[in-house]
User: Fold this.
Amino acid sequence: MAVATVAARYAKSLLDLAKEQGLTETMYKDMQFFKNTVDQNRLLMIMLKNPIVRAEKKSAVLKAAFTNRLNPITMSFIDIVAKKNREGILDAIAEQFINQYNILNSIQRATVVTTVPLTTIQREKFKAMVIKIAHCKLVELEEKIDSNLIGGYILRVGDQQVDGSIRSQLNGLRLEFLN
Assistant:
């Protein structure tokens, strides 16, 4: 079975448990923290995915790293996943949990790439654009800076992209002149 499918099933189980216990916000923050930690610590993820490292060692590392930082129920879930020898997909489970939580709460994640940092007014305009495009209630806007754009912006919402960059416009003009 594909990793994404297995991760989605584990994430759904955790989300169902969180709803049942009234801990959806807490577990959402726990999964965000876990995902950010393993994304920033490449060696931790390599160790978790390594089949040579014994399961007991992986469990000990997970407990040492996260016991004091995560809710006990979240830690119990991570322990169960580790006992099933699925610790290598914990990052995918966390990502799936975050996605399912966002869908449940009508939150859309979007990325905007600009040449300079956004002002508060610009940020609100981009959020309004995302709400219009995705028909959602809330927007989590990730901001990136790319000086190669020359000017303008690129907005990514799910699998859609709005390219309002000067670089794109110049490339369009170049193609028109070539034809």
Residues 3-21 form the longest helix (19 residues). The beta strands are 107-114, 138-145, 153-157, 160-163. The longest strand covers residues 107-114. DSSP finds eight helices and four strands in the chain.
